[in-house]
């Protein structure tokens, strides 16, 4: 044990709640039993996930700036169990920060842990958590104890559990909110944490709180259970409650949440959440993980049956005093300022301060105070920056800090008169970046840096785009400055590409017998109104051409936009077909020998693939036929999107299904070129040759994308709604990408 660990063990003795201390000790024992081979890995995996301990990718030592610092924490002496085990390499620790609320003391502990156990970097996520990477599994109990000593838990941060309860970081200070949702978010966090009714889910369950309907700070519409603050007057008294929405989610196929209740009194918040959890645990899918989120249960049942079942379950629940006890003190924990209110003093012509004021300051409902945003490029902070921020929060406020869903941190209750001094202090700590919540503030998931599912380098692309925008951002039109850009390394939308003005997600393509990193361009999403609508992909572009694609899109917007026209309205007016045509020539790639850098990903000098995978004449004919058919399938699914935009749901759904059949036939033809266009024959041959043999299965999708095809075939002829057609378009995109991936694997094996 490290000397610092022994010191902390002594400091923690007697300071942890008995139950929590016992849980961590139990986990420590489970780690040792797994080391001895006495616990099945499948069971242990879910155990460690529920304690916040993830495995991570570590083949790519490159960070987004091209340095190797993320590998420095790797200690090969700890590899005692051979290859392909959790002992081989460090993993990731996810740390729950309910509604983003932190104290300076908690930030200092985070800094110490990042410095001692990680790579000196703490990462803020899109759900207000912190993540530390390159953490050795055997060290996790010590981290848990040290975090618990300052009131932080990692319990149920991952796994099939209730994840972090997110909440608007401006709750309590926002001029537009109905009321402060903080105490209600806190109550739900404490009530559901470790609750026996939430231990048997088939997948994760994500709640969120928003104080208003119009902003995006809580993103209620994309959560499993979203609470939006509302009030009503009853007998002359103002009554608090929530509009409850359920079944939202991004992921591979995003779903908009459905309204469960237009107004639920606050007294019913916890019992309804408990009843909903019991229904999800009992009736949610358990075997097929790709259909195990609550959104699929609601899709199958319909919102009316789901609501009826939950309300019946609510009536069966035995009374729990915790449901309402907290309501007696919801207004007791109000934050207070450190310094008296004031007015902004002259800024003396400082351009940097002026830019920061424009994007990083938000007025509070309390006169004389503002909330300041600390913009974190890619959500990263060093240990020294964490310590500096803790000191700054103490100097200017009563330690009122919160993380945000845009991977930033806000400091609340800053007196206006202190703004210049606050900026100076932040700037000295390297935390004075302007551009919060504008086009410069690009959100990206970990991607290929550390995620096992990453296909393309989302962080590398984000860093490149940010670098190119940094010098010109504040010279751009206001409409461009206000755009949201979000990037995911794969289709799973951890970077929230579906709800951005301009989104990108990673895919790959086979070009000139090389695998090449690409990104799908996603348009039509809406960030405001709690993630009001989702975008759809329009075209896959080589990764190294994405900066050019972004430039063309924003230039086109500026040239053709009407007065006051938002980007979303502009896309709806001009149509996605026009934007796709604008980008069409960017799909082409230079010859590998002429421009080898195009065949590597951002921030990674290695070639993206293993190189030439065979150029035989017969294979060349197959490649030509396959690529021709796949291009046709991609065109068809794009056409489906354009007809859906024009209101033709039936035609859109039918065309999406046809696109899936086209892609399935394309890969079947590699083995059986006499196949006809009969849908039943295509499905039969695809299932026999690729599904039953598991050739189509890949490490992160399994057979679920094939199941999209089978489900579409089984329901052929069923009328489409706008929603079902939209879902099938998403599923068709994913199936087509899976066919590309399967083809690449087949080609790679044939060359080895």
Describe the structure.
With 752 residues, the protein is α+β, with helices and mostly antiparallel strands. Among the domains are: 3-148, no CATH class; 166-328, Sulfite Reductase Hemoprotein, domain 1 (2-Layer Sandwich), CATH 3.30.413.10; 370-428, Alpha-Beta Plaits (2-Layer Sandwich); 613-752, Four Helix Bundle (Hemerythrin (Met), subunit A). It is 40% helix and 14% strand. The chain contains 24 helices and 20 strands. It has a 5-stranded antiparallel beta sheet. A 5-stranded antiparallel beta sheet has the order 3-14-15-12-11. A 5-stranded mixed beta sheet has the order 6-7-8-9-10. Strand 6 (166-167), helix 6 and strand 7 form a beta-alpha-beta unit. It is globular.
In short:
Helix content is 40%, strand content 14%. With 752 residues, the chain is of the alpha+beta class. A hairpin with a 5-residue loop joins strand 11 (361-363) and strand 12.
Q: What is the CATH topology assignment of the domain at 166-328?
A: Sulfite Reductase Hemoprotein, domain 1
Distance from N terminus to C terminus (CA atoms, Å) equals 45 Å
CATH class category label of the domain at 166-328? Alpha Beta
Number of helices: 24
Structural class: alpha+beta
SSE layout and pairings?
Layout: H1 3-12, H2 18-35, H3 41-49, E1 53-54, E2 91-95, E3 101-102, H4 104-117, E4 121-124, E5 130-135, H5 140-148, E6 166-167, H6 182-192, E7 207-210, E8 225-234, E9 237-246, E10 258-265, H7 269-283, H8 294-301, H9 303-316, H10 322-325, H11 351-360, E11 361-363, E12 369-374, E13 380-382, H12 383-396, E14 401-403, E15 409-415, H13 419-428, E16 443-444, H14 458-470, H15 478-481, E17 485-488, E18 502-511, E19 514-523, H16 528-531, E20 536-542, H17 546-560, H18 567-574, H19 576-583, H20 617-645, H21 649-668, H22 679-691, H23 704-714, H24 722-751
Parallel strand pairs: 6-7, 7-8, 16-17, 17-18
Antiparallel strand pairs: 1-2, 2-5, 3-14, 4-5, 4-13, 8-9, 9-10, 11-12, 12-15, 14-15, 18-19, 19-20
Helix pairs in contact: 2-3, 2-5, 4-12, 6-7, 7-9, 8-9, 20-21, 20-24, 21-22, 21-24, 22-23, 23-24
